Predict the structure.
Amino acid sequence: MTHSETLHAAGLTAPDLTGGTLPVHSPIDGAEVARIRETAPADMAGVIAASQQAFKAWRDVPAPRRGELVRLLGEELRAAKAELGAVVTLEAGKITSEGLGEVQEMIDICDFAVGLSRQIYGLTIASERPGHRMMESWHPLGTCAIISAFNFPVAVWSWNAALALVCGNPVIWKPSEKTPLTAMTCMKIMDRALARFGDAPAGLVQLVIGGPAIGEALVTSKDIPVVSATGSTRMGSIVGPKVAARFGRSILELGGNNAMIVAPSADMDMAVRAIVFSAVGTAGQRCTTLRRLIAHNSIKADLVAKLAKAYASLPIGDPRHATTLIGPLVDHPARDRMVAALDKARAEGGTVHGGAPVTQGVPAGGAYVAPALVEMPAQSAVVKTETFAPILYVLGYDTLDEAIHLQNDVPQGLSSCIFTLDMREAGAFLGAAGSDCGIANVNIGPSGAEIGGAFGGEKETGGGRESGSDAWKGYMRRQTNTVNYSAALPLAQGVKFDF
Ligand code: UN1
């Protein structure tokens, strides 16, 4: 299929794709595929006001009925899976299976949120006073702004939107400027769900497209109580303080620098499979991508040899071809950053295997690269930096304490894992003095998390939690209620105040 056939199959029409100011390129071949109309900064006040209006109606709709909208969204996503997945491939450069997987992640979170819509539970609490009852009520909070990144252009929106909507909040979505077409496709799918739902308020789900001025309007508006932002640590360090300054709530999902410890007892074949998928999948552009391999010195050389062999056989090329495993980087600046990181690694004493730009057997115009394995003498500055590319730094260790120290000794704290068959090592890794990350796994890689768990991480990753478990609480306000059903008015803490 040509790019325009893919876009038209997903329901995007000529007026959607032309006449605007924002050029959109496909990473597959660098071709300009659209010029999108941007939201004028002056229009943001109206967008936010419409969202406020929608909130007034939506917060009164019973949560299970709100869940019905998300159930319909899940149905529409199932029907449009192939078409939306193809746009993810076109616009983000993911291989077909990963584009489809991303849509599946959306369907999964919709299912989760539908169930949640009947499970918004609060606690009841024993009161210290006779004839009193205490409980918690969870109420909708208000508009949730969702600022998403290019690398999961649709799934991250759905994690936030599906939860926010069942929690009673309208959403305003600002996608990456690199991936507005996937967002527009999602909005068409959402519009079909809204039409079937029938009576959702106007302005419940909005999309705004543009650059920093649009983001700034969302981040600084006191009418937006929750800002969920996914992207670089640099972006988060700007967004977080601005939201905090107006006492808003931010849910930040920022950089990762994810490691795997491979112990001597590990099932090596399984470890190799996990390493290859998590280090080179999505061309190293997941926030959960494996970036550091911490291998026991007794098995390190053998492991590196096995990986080098596996890396040499990985098909690199057009992400639409069924056999391709490594598609392009998002753009040429991303490739320049990879080349620069490898130069820095060499300067810091690293031995680089692979990592060269690839121009043969791939579509012209795309930024294709061979994945790099880099043996490092120490965890130097470049290793502590997240470069969004398929670079895997390899470090050695002798004791588990040393390995855990290396794993934790970076600014980021998203995902981590250990390969071991020794339950004591696994227990230590998952313990309080083990991994300091938001995600810690045993005998699986750091990427490809299921939606059922809370997703996010510590330190410079930003501390936010999205997706499963009780992450929904981040989108609601908790109200503590004390009800006195007695005929007396006792004060707490035994205070006397008689008059
Ligand atoms: C991201 O890269 O921002 O765990 C999200 C994973 C995916 C989500 C990644 N489920 O790799």
Summary: Residues 131 and 487 are 8 Å apart (CA to CA). The first helix runs from residue 3 to 9. Residues 105, 151-152, 156, 230, 286-288, 447-449 surround 2-aminohexanedioic acid (CB under 6 Å).
